[in-house]
């Protein structure tokens, strides 16, 4: 075999036939496998040294993730950091330096979502950090931000292509009226305006005679005049008609005349300001020397001027319509801006509230529509504008409720929470309840049915929620409390009392009086009472733990609303009896050192005695529940003292005579339980009161004998 044939054997060419597939190579890659992803929403290993969020990541883990190359990881880290700081606010003070340095680093990130998350985190941190805490980090943050802005590729592209973006200051009013151009509004988040120019504008409010710091010196004023006067003259030259006759009585249209008036007003203000600083008349001489010739040439050469009216009716109507649309759209943006601003600038918020109140009083449709859309954010009981501003601004916001086009159930729920959480004073809460009553169908105004924009069911739900003083979630949480100092437990009543703070108790009591007044003025007393007792039976009856203010307020409302036309539900009577005994047990076991709860005694004792005197069946049910054989030895003296006080109270004496046999049996059971030892003083006093007021009473039953 030749050498050529051997070389061909080493490199043989495969001859392919028509209709047959090409054979697979020995080193061919198999691509028919399948893959599945594993998603880990949280870490299984917990770090007990530092607090963690719902993903079990602590502050160090989240800050380290901000250096990740993936934009999604950085955005998730920012959102997780916001969640962690909202749950554990004390972390802010401990790690403020690291938080600010890392957040400012991603503030100029290439990804828009990361920048947005960084801005949201800074907005969340701003109200929680004091000025003296954040002031040391300003130079570092500004230097870092400025250097990163210079290195940003997006800004460099905008710089190279100046036509890519338009000037945000230039606004074409026709395009804006037709929604073809948007106006960018920047809010001032601080108490003082941040001005980059050396000249500072004066505030809208303040003394007229005060001079700003930027123009206080003659040199600054002179430099400002050198800049502004040529610009004003150029504005007038652009607005003046191309040809003005030299004769007297030149006619000018309205728009150029308005420009000239504004220019002359500014020049007049500068002239008056120069006189305040010009004691030696040097500045006046300088003004005459540099600008008198130009002033005569451009303004006085064609003096006097006359208004030239041009009859363009359609254009005038269009202009008015455009101006009205611009004003309406500007007003429509104020409620949302107020909701975002909050308490960061109280003075600006006050001005916005005044403008909104004026426009709402004039029934501006666009503003009322926007106010209705932003009402849930403004009247949020946690972070809404109504709860973070001073009392005067809160009053104006409460008055704005009267102008809302509608009052849905979710808004009424938030208003109720504002009343009962103590974020509004009792007087403002009373004003709010009165405004809602005026908007309801029970106010007495003679409107048609379509004008009522709040249903009767929602109105009664608002009154009952305000009456209870606690939300459904809070009442559910209270049911899990047992064996804590704030819960008073007794073995003779199924109702346990949760002791509220004194301020919360007094605020709830004052608000309840306003709710009672609103219920009393409803014409159909029996129907409103039926609605109230059905709500109590549905939401309160069956609960084990009830706040002391809620129990007292419910008893007080029943006493004030009940009359001869009302029929009390059978399911409500045992609940009222249990509440009465629990409240009386709490009052009788108070110690002298508990000064905070001692101030509740008069109010709670008054409503308990009133309900027992008004409803004898409640008194009988309470006496029937006193099965002393189930009570502990520490509760027997309390029961004896309670019976003695009920016997001594004059309004209840007749009802106690009616239940004399039941009272005698209770005292006999107590005596039997205490027969093994020495008779104590409280038991002797109880026997004495029973013999005086029951056995020895001339109208008492003769069959009763002394117990001992």
Q: What amount of the residues lies in strands?
A: under 5%
Structural class: mainly alpha
Number of helices: 34
Outline the low-pLDDT stretches: 153-174, 180-212, 245-249, 447-451, 700-708
Textual characterization of the structure:
HEAT repeats lie at residues 99-137. There is one protein chain. With 708 residues, the protein is mostly helical. Among the domains are: 59-161; 218-309; 633-708, no CATH class. It has helices at 3-10, 59-65, 71-87, 90-94, 96-106, 112-125, 131-134, 138-151, 153-160, 173-177, 218-239, 254-277, 282-300, 313-332, 334-341, 346-361, 365-378, 385-388, 391-400, 409-420, 426-439, 456-468, 472-478, 502-520, 525-539, 548-561, 572-588, 595-598, 601-614, 616-624, 636-648, 650-658, 660-673, 681-695; strands at 250-252, 305-307, 487-488, 496-498, 545-547. Strands 3-4-5 form a three-stranded mixed β-sheet. Helix 16 (346-361) packs parallel to helix 19 (391-400) and helix 19 runs parallel beside helix 21 (426-439). The longest helix is centred in the middle third of the chain and has 24 residues, at 254-277. The protein is extended, with a radius of gyration of 40 Å. It starts with a helix and ends in a 13-residue tail after the last helix. The model is unreliable at 153-174, 180-212, 245-249, 447-451 and 700-708 (pLDDT under 50).
């Amino acid at each position: 075999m030749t050498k050529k044939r051997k070389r061909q054997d080493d490199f043989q060419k495969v001859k392919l036939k028509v209709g047959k597939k090409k054979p697979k190579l020995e080193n061919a890659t198999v691509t028919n496998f399948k893959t599945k992803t594993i998603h880990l929403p949280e870490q299984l290993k917990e770090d007990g040294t530092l607090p963690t969020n719902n993903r079990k990541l602590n502050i160090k883990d989240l800050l380290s993730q901000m250096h990740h190359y993936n934009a999604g990881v950085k955005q998730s880290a920012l959102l997780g950091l916001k969640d962690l700081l909202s749950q554990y606010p004390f972390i802010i003070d401990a790690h403020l330096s690291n938080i600010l340095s890392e957040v400012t680093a991603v503030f100029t990130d290439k990804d828009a979502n990361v920048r947005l998350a960084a801005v949201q985190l800074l907005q969340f941190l701003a109200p929680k950090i004091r000025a003296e805490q954040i002031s040391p980090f300003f130079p570092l943050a500004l230097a870092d931000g400025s250097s990163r802005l210079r290195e940003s590729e997006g800004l460099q592209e905008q710089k190279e292509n100046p036509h890519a973006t338009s000037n945000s200051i230039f606004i074409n009013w026709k395009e804006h009226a037709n929604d073809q151009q948007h106006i960018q509004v920047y809010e001032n988040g601080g108490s003082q305006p941040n001005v980059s120019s050396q000249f500072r504008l004066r505030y809208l409010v303040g003394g007229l005679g005060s001079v700003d710091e930027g123009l206080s010196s003659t040199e600054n004023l002179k430099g400002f005049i050198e800049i502004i006067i040529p610009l004003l003259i150029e504005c007038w030259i652009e607005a003046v008609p191309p040809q003005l006759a030299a004769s007297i009585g030149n006619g000018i249209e309205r728009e150029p005349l308005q420009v000239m008036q504004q220019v002359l007003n500014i020049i007049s203000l500068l002239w008056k300001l120069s006189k305040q600083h010009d004691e030696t008349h040097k500045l006046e001489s300088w003004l005459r020397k540099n600008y008198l010739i130009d002033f005569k040439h451009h303004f006085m050469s064609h003096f006097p001027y006359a208004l030239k009216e041009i009859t363009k009716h359609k254009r005038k109507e269009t202009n008015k319509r455009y101006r009205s649309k611009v004003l309406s759209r500007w007003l429509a943006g104020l409620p949302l801006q107020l909701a975002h601003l909050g308490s960061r600038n109280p003075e600006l918020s006050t001005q916005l509230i005044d403008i909104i109140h004026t426009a709402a009083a004039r029934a501006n449709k666009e503003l009322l529509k926007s106010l209705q859309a932003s009402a849930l954010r403004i009247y949020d009981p946690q972070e809404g504008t109504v709860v973070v501003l001073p009392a005067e601004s809160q009053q104006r916001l409460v008055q704005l409720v009267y102008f809302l086009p509608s009052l849905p159930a979710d808004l009424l729920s938030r208003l109720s929470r504002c009343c009962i959480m103590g974020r509004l004073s009792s007087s403002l809460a009373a004003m709010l309840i009165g405004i809602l009553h005026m908007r309801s169908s029970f106010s007495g105004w003679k409107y048609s049915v379509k004008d009522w924009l709040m249903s009767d069911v929602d109105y009664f739900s608002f009154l009952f929620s305000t009456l209870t003083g606690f939300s459904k979630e809070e009442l559910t949480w209270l049911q899990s409390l047992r064996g804590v100092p704030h819960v008073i437990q007794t073995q003779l009543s199924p109702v346990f009392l949760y002791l509220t703070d004194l301020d919360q108790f007094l605020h709830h009591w004052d608000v309840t009086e306003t709710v009672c007044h609103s219920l009393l003025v409803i014409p159909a007393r029996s129907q409103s009472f039926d609605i109230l007792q059905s709500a109590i039976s549905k939401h309160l009856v069956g609960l084990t733990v009830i706040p002391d203010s809620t129990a007292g307020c419910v008893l007080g409302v029943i006493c004030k609303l009940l009359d001869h036309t009302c029929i009390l539900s059978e399911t409500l009577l045992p609940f009222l009896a249990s509440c009465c005994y629990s409240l009386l047990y709490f009052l009788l076991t108070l110690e002298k050192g508990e000064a905070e709860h001692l101030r509740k005694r008069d109010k709670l004792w008054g409503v308990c005695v009133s309900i027992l005197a008004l409803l004898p069946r409640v008194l009988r049910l309470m006496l029937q529940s006193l099965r002393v054989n189930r009570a502990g030895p520490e509760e027997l003296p309390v029961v004896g003292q309670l019976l003695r006080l009920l016997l001594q109270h004059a309004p209840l004496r007749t009802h106690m005579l009616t239940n004399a046999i039941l009272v005698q049996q209770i005292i006999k059971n107590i005596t039997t339980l205490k027969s093994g030892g020495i008779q104590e003083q409280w038991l002797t006093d109880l026997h004495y009161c029973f013999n005086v007021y029951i056995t020895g009473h001339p109208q008492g039953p003769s069959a009763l004998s002394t117990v001992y």
